[in-house]
TrEMBL record, chains A, B, C, D, E:
Family to which this protein belongs: Belongs to the CorA metal ion transporter (MIT) (TC 1.A.35) family.
Its membrane topology: Multi-pass membrane protein
Origin superkingdom: Bacteria
Organism of derivation: Christiangramia flava JLT2011
Keywords: Cell membrane, Ion transport, Magnesium, Membrane, Transmembrane, Transmembrane helix, Transport
Pfam families tied to this protein: CorA
A GO cellular component entry from the record: plasma membrane
NCBIfam families: corA
Membrane spanning residue stretches: 301-321, 333-353
UniProt-recorded name of the protein: Magnesium transport protein CorA
Length: 359, 359, 359, 359, 359
């Protein structure tokens, strides 16, 4: 059995470090080593500019009211820089706190001038699902995204903006929000497809290998993984559902169709998760029956061997006795007759077990 | 155990190919080889025309405002032709996308001039349930249906239109929609009846054959199948339920009774699915008890054989010892007396096991 | 194991024969041989008349506006006669269809001039629960009931009308409807009481007999039965619930108290069904533990026998060896000493197993 | 296994005897032998009178408009006397029927002049939970309570009235109702505490005794008991919940706080019931693992004994063979060397099993 | 197995001692020995005073209308002192009763001048979760907290008030309430993290140790613990949820954001609890499979030993027979040939079991 430490829920200790004063900013997570970096994309139908920096202040001069600005921050360690960004966009202190507290469950909060969305990205690491906290601020003409580590799930969106493919350049900030959420949800499909492959592989293993505790462990790991995925997806489903119904100037009428599409996707993912969950739970039962089948087989071998040879050994024992008067011992053909009898018993036994379908 | 690849959910990768730009048309499914073909039926109470083609444009000239037109497209590969149809009927880009993305869950969407319905057809292929994506556009006097492969579930409807049997020729497009949904749902009855037969057959097998991993596998396959059926039927139930309540000029008052009837049917199917599901889940438990019963039987044979012959062999062993002074050995009738003792032990043992009801 | 065919849900193929044109009348069920017969009771406070016939037309002349008329049709084969009745009372074609399609789940439908209620009667046949389709039309001063076979569950109601016992003669048609539904629901009590007896009997059997596949089968049959009962009762509960809330001229104010009473009863039945369901599901677990207990016992016998006699046989084997120089063999009392040793081992073993509580 | 008859739900046949005419009074229950007796307490702040009789008519003269009258009837056999009481207080016939039909589930019904409440008292009898039907009529200045048997759960309330302790004498009839319901619910605490003790005791037994069918039976009995308790408590919770919301002149504003308190209590009981239920269901699993553990132990003893002595016996058997030429037999020290070899094998085996932790 | 008494729900007998007169004050709990002590903190932005006493009356003179007063009472034995406090702040008798009755489930009650909140603190004691009853009165400018024992969960809040860190000194009483609830909920994170560690540790143990009843017991204890945690957390979630929606002058607008934050935390805890619950329930299944795996291994050892040596012993037995004429016995090399045969059988057997993967 592997010795590596298994974390039941890869819990980021608990969103807020204990006894922390509410409303103060401290990064809570397990990716302290990731350096904070900033990536700004500023675009409209005609123009496109991209800028990378370590400090938001360098970037503010690039921000143009007529263009849509997408700030992407990777790494949440450098709390001061994040705070500056928060001040620039006048974010609520509790929002700032939630951005750096990575244990948040997906949620949406409406503020006067912006929407605040928390989601979770999922990826595999050493065979275990990892959650990565993503938060998003959607304003009139800007989108801020905050990631714990430098992920690549948004790359296709960047490319589409750069090359001007699709509708994205001609739409407003809410469409960018949709595109980013769409990228996150598309990623879930990958993760649950992988889950499906692992379930199938395990089903295969169940029947072809000898029962071992490794299989139990793997089933348990699948359970843990599906529970983690569920924890990321189900609240996000509520978020998208509420996004569909929100009445805000920030969401244009025509973007609503796209959000509904998003909702369809996440409902589909949720349904698949539930199905996989049932399958995984079923694996344990399957495993029990295969173990029982194998034990049955072992017992049959034992029973057949013992049932055949124990009586024969008894017979041999009889004629190994040293009584002075055992008539059979003197007769010349006794030995051969006895062999005959034994062979008949042997064949009779085999026939009996054959008829019982144990052979 | 069969070596064939089992797909857990026969997933069409995931409705949308990853990183695809939202709103662009690409066929997503696993029936790429099916050639797109078009079948147009144009009818009213008096007239009936049928036309088959590879291109919708040939068909448009046949379309007559006074008649109801049913376009049926088999095969979703030829995206351009489908696009032309979409332009002709002014369909929303996202609708067009959903038509060719076959992983959609059943849904209904109301648009200004038409209803968009997605459903799933079910059929068996190599003992596994397959889902086939069907989408339907219902307009004022036309119905468009899109199928992945050339199915035959609509043939009875075609026949009724051709021969003018029943109400169908005298009613409007919404009744045609009802007739088509009715055909799909009727098909579900076949599928779940088949499921019922397989459950019964497996129950029978459980008791009559030796336990083997094949049975576990079959139960698992039934589970997968019922989960797939559920995934097709339950959302369609919501669809029909909403169809009942929709307030649209497209649905006539008198068609509502028929839709309610449809709803009754799909509720009934849903209930049966839940019952079959409980039965299938119960099969695993049943199987465990039969395995245990069989193991019990094996153990009894072993125990009886060992309990009878081990003591007897011990006795024989005693008189096979080479001690110089064993008084019994000299006595003339010892051997026969010993046989007597052994037979008494043997019969006593049999009686004991008989009384314990192990024999 | 019994060879008789078990039907999982005693499904009447599926309410509607496949590809049947919606709105046409064909009897769907498995009691084709039952001849249609008609029983008309016409009564008011003062008068009472009863009439039996094969054709409704003979009966129409008996119908008197001032009296309440109860048409009871047994057997749904003679579709034409039923159609005549439908025309006389101006029933909707879909209602007519539902009357003869026996797979319907219990439901209530309000029409202008009448209520349409579908329910299911339950009875045992060869140890399996059978459902019988009953439909009821309740109009201003008439009640029509349609049964698949000639049942006797309504006899007490007939008697009450005939003898004028209770309130029934002095009330209107809705009270008759109540009395008939009450008779059906009373019958459910009988069926679930019987279910309770069978559960208890099976519990008893579980402990007193050797494990066998018959018990697994019986548990499975109980499961099937309770699922069937549930399928009849739960939708009827909704029906009665809606009947309580319906605002219709057909239901008098003072009948409402009786309907509420009916609702109490069916809720009570539903609760019992859920309890029995839990008990039945628990039976499988109980059964598993009794099998395991029995196997444990078998194993103990084997282990005790083997543990005692295998070492003793070994000792006997030692002194059966033919080495030229085994000092013990020459000593005169060796044989007796050895017996002593063996008896001590034997008693020691027994004591050991006694202390382990295996004996 | 005990031979006593176990009743699954201690069903009072079914609230209404079959085919009984609705609205007629017949006692339905299993305590026919209890003689009906009447206990009247008439009190206000200043006065207190108590009167016991067999007939309500004797009591009516004691009833004083200015005082609160509590009629308590024990035993529901004497239907005529109960009927007289019903007439005196002008109760609805269906209420009268529900009073004597003891299978009713807890409910509340509002009438013009009074509230009708049905509850169930719980107590142990021969280790099984028994339900006793209690119904209560709460009017302007009277409370009628009807019990199947002479219980003592109301004694503390009687004492408080007599001695004038607490608020009860200074309050109106609704407070008396509260006090009585409070007494019933307090009693539930006793019953579920007892349940808790039994669960703990059984857990203890599970580990300390040999597996036996008695334990399975006891777990099953606990299941039955908890299901029965649930059946009494859950509907009463709804009753109290509705009582809280009822708008009736009969309930004073200031009594509402007490009813809310009652509701808190019954919610707490419901939660505990659910927890106990989970614990009881878990007992079966626990039991299975302890059986398996015990079987494992049995198998280990067998395997160790057989694995050690079967090879040794084989070796002894080798040198018991009668071949003319077996070189070892002639050598003088063979026997002693062989003993050495055997002891080494023996120790080796012990070490092997020790390392496998089977010893 | 440990002999210590396990309490299923550490029930404080039942919130109200049986037959107690409603509305009278008696401490109900199991911490009778804790002496009641009083700790008063009186503060505003500028001032801070702290006072400890045994009697509230000493403290009343310290109370200043312009400051926020936090009374904390540890130990609920001294009912008279608590009563004095209740009179001073004009608390409702039922509130007073709920403060000293420690079995209350978490709840919130709105009164004219104050809110009454009941919560439960959780901590470990001898490996079992203990609940401690906390009640809180929140008034215009005061907060009263009542604890059963002297806990330390509020210490960080005290420190923040004393040192003036964070917002707390500049806010009103409702913010203090938030800070205290926040401290309680933070504590839950610790408890469930600990739970997570124990689950992981047990998973580890499951595979590395021999099956024993101790593991079953530990799983059962985890179940009990998680059920207890759930019982404390789930109703508190409702409480916080209602607190969010309450319209009261006592809760300032700007505190609402903090309460929403609190709600997010408790929802997160609830979700984790549900996940842990599923994991714990899964442990029993895992345990069963590891037991079965271990038994399988035991059986294989037995079967291999018996299958190899029983036939060999039989062969040795054959040539131990004393027939006068056994031709093989005379031949000189018989013995060596036989050894050869036996070794071949031995190797053949090993190969057979190897191929079956039993070795």
């Amino acid at each position: 059995m592997a010795k590596r430490k298994r974390h039941l829920l890869r819990r980021p200790k608990h969103s807020k470090s204990l006894n922390q004063i509410p409303g103060t900013l401290t990064y809570v997570g397990n990716k302290e080593s990731v350096e904070t970096s900033l990536d700004v994309i500023d675009y409209n139908q005609e123009q496109y500019e991209r800028f990378q920096s370590k400090s938001p202040q360098d970037a503010f001069k690039f921000v143009d009211e007529d263009r849509i600005t997408w700030f992407n921050i990777d790494g949440l360690n450098n709390v001061e820089e994040i705070e500056k960004l928060g001040e620039y966009y006048e974010l609520h202190p509790l929002v700032m706190e939630d951005i750096v507290n990575t244990g948040q469950r997906p949620k949406i909060e409406e503020y006067q001038d912006y929407l605040f969305i928390v989601a979770q990205m999922l990826y595999y690491k050493d065979g275990e699902i990892e959650n990565e906290h993503i938060s998003m601020i959607v304003g009139k003409n800007y989108v801020l995204t905050f990631q714990e580590a430098n992920g690549d799930v948004f790359d296709p969106v960047r490319e589409r903006i750069e090359t001007g493919k699709g509708r994205i350049r001609s739409r407003s900030a809410d469409y960018l929000m949709f595109a980013l959420l769409d990228a996150i949800i598309d990623n879930y499909f990958l993760v649950i497809d992988d889950m499906s492959d692992r379930i199938e592989a395990l089903e295969e293993t169940l029947f072809t290998t000898q029962p071992s505790d490794d299989i139990t462990l793997e089933i348990q790991e699948l359970k843990r993984n599906i529970l983690r995925i569920r924890r990321a997806v189900f609240p996000l489903r509520e978020v998208i559902g509420r996004l569909e119904k929100i009445e805000s100037d920030l969401i244009e009428e025509k973007t609503n169709n796209y959000i509904r599409d998003l909702y369809d996707h996440i409902v589909q993912i949720s349904e698949n998760i539930e199905i996989y969950r049932e399958m995984i739970w079923g694996l344990m039962d399957m495993y029990m029956t295969t173990i029982s089948n194998k034990m049955n087989e072992v017992m049959k071998v034992l029973t057949i061997m013992a049932s055949i040879f124990i009586p024969l050994t008894f017979i041999a024992g009889i004629y190994g006795m040293n009584f002075e008067y055992i008539p059979e011992l003197q007769w010349k053909y006794s030995y051969f007759v006895l062999w005959g009898v034994m062979i008949i018993i042997f064949i009779g036994m085999l026939y009996y077990f054959k008829r019982k379908k144990w052979l």
